[in-house]
Amino acid sequence: MKTVLSVAGLHREYGKTVAVEDITFHVGPGEVVGLLGPNGAGKTTTISMILGVLVPSGGAIRIDGADLATERSRALSRANFAAVHAPLPGNLTVAQNLRIFGLLYGVQGLSKRIDVLLAQFDLQALRDVRCGVLSSGELTRAGLAKALLNRPRVLLLDEPTASLDPASARDIRTKIRAYAAEGEGGVLWTSHNMYEVEDVCDRVLFLSHGRILLEGDPKTLPGRHGKATLEELFIAVAREPLALEGG
Amino acid sequence: MHGARTGAILLRHFYLLRGSLTRVVPLFVWVAIDIVLWGFITQYLNAVSGASLDFVPVLLGAVLFWDFCSRVMHGVSTAFLEDVWSRNFVNLFATPLTLTEYLGGLVLSSMVTSAVGLAVMLVLATGVFGLSFLGYGLAIVPFVLVLFLFGVALGIVGSGVVLRLGPAAEWFVWPIPALVSPFVGVFYPLATLPPWMQHLARLLPPSYVFEGMRSILAGGTASVGMLALGAALSMTYVVLACWFFARVYHHALRTGLLARYSAESVT
After folding, report:
1. pLDDT band at B262 (very low <50, low <70, confident <90, very high)
2. SS3 content of chain A, % helix, strand, coil (to 5)
């Protein structure tokens, strides 16, 4: 099976604490996969390892076929991300940030690509505004524009709609779905909004205590575990993970 | 090595400088104040000491060379600190950027900013206080090269210290040139120093520059062998500084410090 992100036996310890325990999953082209779990489940640790800013204690990560450990630059040139905990530098304008990250990702036809993304994310009027004075919604859109600069094969989105109003959030979800529908790139999406996850994701992975507890279609998974909604299932994972283990 | 990625680091610094008076002014104000202060001191010393020794090239030239070295060091560190201040490490190191490209970008940024300081110092020192560089002859080329390389090495080490210890360790970076200056004989011959300081001085490349400078001003020549030793030491320190920074960077990747840098420690 063709994959754009392949994670095998990924493991991370902090001293005696196991943050991520031998997780294995993949993301296919055109697929949106939700990485779900309560706070402290290991989602951000997993994403940090895929982004190459945290070295795993064990396991392997391949991005579009390139091994992150041995072909770091090649692998990272095919990935990108947007995360609320890593906003764009506030002392540069939207266009300046996009140009700098475009150069770092080796984007061809950069000026044209920046114009397209500014239009796509309704940022033309904010082109020369410093990111530090943008509203949280505008900053999120600028971060997403940066995340799509290099048409990544793997797009990591860490709560991308957390600070958006419902209308803006729906607009962003539509754009991300459209990006995935082009079929080149896959998306790994973390969110605490289960309505959003059900709407956007083709498949979800529930993390609990660093392990993948459940995996499946967000529309059918709750029913398989005797829950009415994905949110109920999420709460069960957070409160009674042992009851769901093996499910 | 990918030139565009190194260029991106330089471009980032250019954007920051272009839009910020608070970044542009320090490039030349402190060195200008130093030159003016020492310019008048040398004029006063010339007046009270008679014509036996011209203090302008001895002291003002030394101040200019040392300030250049300091500006190079601060140029590298400041370009690095911009990423600390804007909490940009995750954005930056999740790109294909390699460490060599990143450090190369910091050094290029420093070349530009230190050139501004050097130009202002040259204009003031030659135009206002009559300092002439013709007397140094071709030796000025290795002088500048050795001081530049040593400044780069200090800047990379300073950046590594901040990366390892967290944003608050910025305080350690700024006084590094002042800490080093007594050992390298900026204003006095190394023979003035006690033996233990002389031993240390021989390990520091700027010592060979300032000794050479004084030798030329005394009517002699700068020792080619000593300058070559200074250059070799400088290059060695640049390599060691890069090694140190790489060690700290990989430690930050291993421990998770890079991803949670503002915490200063992950233990």
Report:
1. low
2. 40, 25, 35
Residue A73 to residue B259, Cβ atoms within 8 A = no
Same domain, A44 and A113: no
Same structural domain, A115 and A199: no
A124 and A52 share one domain: no
CB within 8 Å of chain A, chain B residues 92-121: 92-98
If asked whether residues A92 and A73 sit together in one domain, one would say: no
Whether A204 shows a pLDDT value over 70: the answer reads: yes
| b (16+ CB within 10 A) / e for B139-158 | bbebbbbbbbbbbbbbbbbb
Q: pLDDT band at residue A50, thresholds of 50, 70 and 90?
A: very high
> How far is CA B40 from its chain centroid?
24
B96 to A54: CB separation less than 8 angstroms, yes or no: no
Residue B247: alpha-carbon gap to chain centroid = 22
Provide the residue range defining the domain that includes A230.
5-78+153-244
**Range from A207-216, B128-137, B156-165 carrying the lowest mean pLDDT:** B128-137
The residue among B90, B99, B258 with the most chain A CBs within 10 A of its CB, best to mutate, is B90
Chain A residues within 8 Å of chain B (Cβ atoms): 14-15, 45, 48, 51-55, 72-74, 76-77, 79-81, 83, 85-93, 96, 99-101, 103-106
Interface test with A, best of B10, B11, B12 (most A CBs within 10 A): B12
pLDDT of residue A243: 63
- Among candidate residues A96, A128, A151, the one where a domain is terminated: A151
Q: Which of A105, A128, A151 is the last residue of a domain?
A: A151
The structure's pTM equals 0.93
Neighbours of A192 (CB within 10 A): 15
- pLDDT given at position A246: 54
Q: Who among B12, B16, B96 is closest to A73 (CB)?
A: B96
